[in-house]
Amino acid sequence: MMLPVGHPAHIAVTIRKLLAYRKLDKRKTRLYSLSPRAAHGALVVIMAQQPQLATRVVERFLDYVTYDTQSSDDSTSFPSTAKQLVFLDRLVSDLQALGLRDAVRDQYGYVFATIPATTRKPGVPTIGYIAHVDTSPEASGAGVRPIMHRDWQGDDIVLPDDPAVILRRSEHPALAGKVGEDIITASGLTLLGADNKAGVAAIVALAEYLLAHPEVPHGAIRLGFTPDEEVGTGTQYFDVTRFGAKYAYTIDGETLGQIEAESFSADSVNVTFSGWNTHPGLAHGKMVNAIKVAADFIGRLPRDRLSPETTCDRQGFVHPYQMEAAVEKTSVKFLIRDFDTKKLSEYEKFLQDLAEQTAAEWPGASAQVQVTESYRNMREVIEQHPHVVENARKAIARAGLPVLDAPIRGGTDGSRLSFMGLPTPNLFVGEHNYHSRLEWISAQDLHKAVEVMVHLAQIWAEDAAE
Ligand SMILES: [Zn+2]
Question: Is residue 28 scored above 80 in pLDDT?
Answer without folding.
Answer: no
